[in-house]
Amino acid sequence: MKTALCRRTLRLILTMHGLIRLTDTAELLATELVANSVRHRKGPAALRVRWSDGVLRIGAWGTDPEPPEPPGRWEQLTEAEEGRGMALVRACADLWGRQPHAREGSRGKYVWCDLVAI
C-alpha cells in the first residue's frame, strides 16, 4: 500500500514537471527504497524527491540505522533472500549511496539514488 502511494505520487509530480521520461525508472527505484525502509523500520519512513541541475534524486529515510546490504553479483542474487532490491537500485541508478540521518529525534539512515536526465 505505501509503495503504491509513493509510485502514484511520484508519477504525478514528475508528470506535472515535464519529467515523464524518468517515471518508469523513478517508480522502480522509489519502490525499492521505500520497501527497504518499511521492511527494516522500527518507526516511520519517508520518501524525498529532489530535482536539481538535471538530476532527479530519490531518497528514503527510515529509522533502522543499519546500512543496507551491499548488492552482490547478479548470479548470486537469483537465490538470495535479500539484496535484490538494492541490486536493482545499483543497476538502474546513475549513482546511489547512504548516510546516517536523524529525523524527529530518531536515528536512522537516508538511502538515495540519482537519475540523470539526458
Automatic annotation (TrEMBL):
* Keyword annotations: ATP-binding, Nucleotide-binding
A single GO molecular-function term is: ATP binding
Tell me which InterPro entries the record gives.
Anti-sigma-factor_SerPK, HATPase_C_sf
Name of this chain's protein: ATP-binding protein
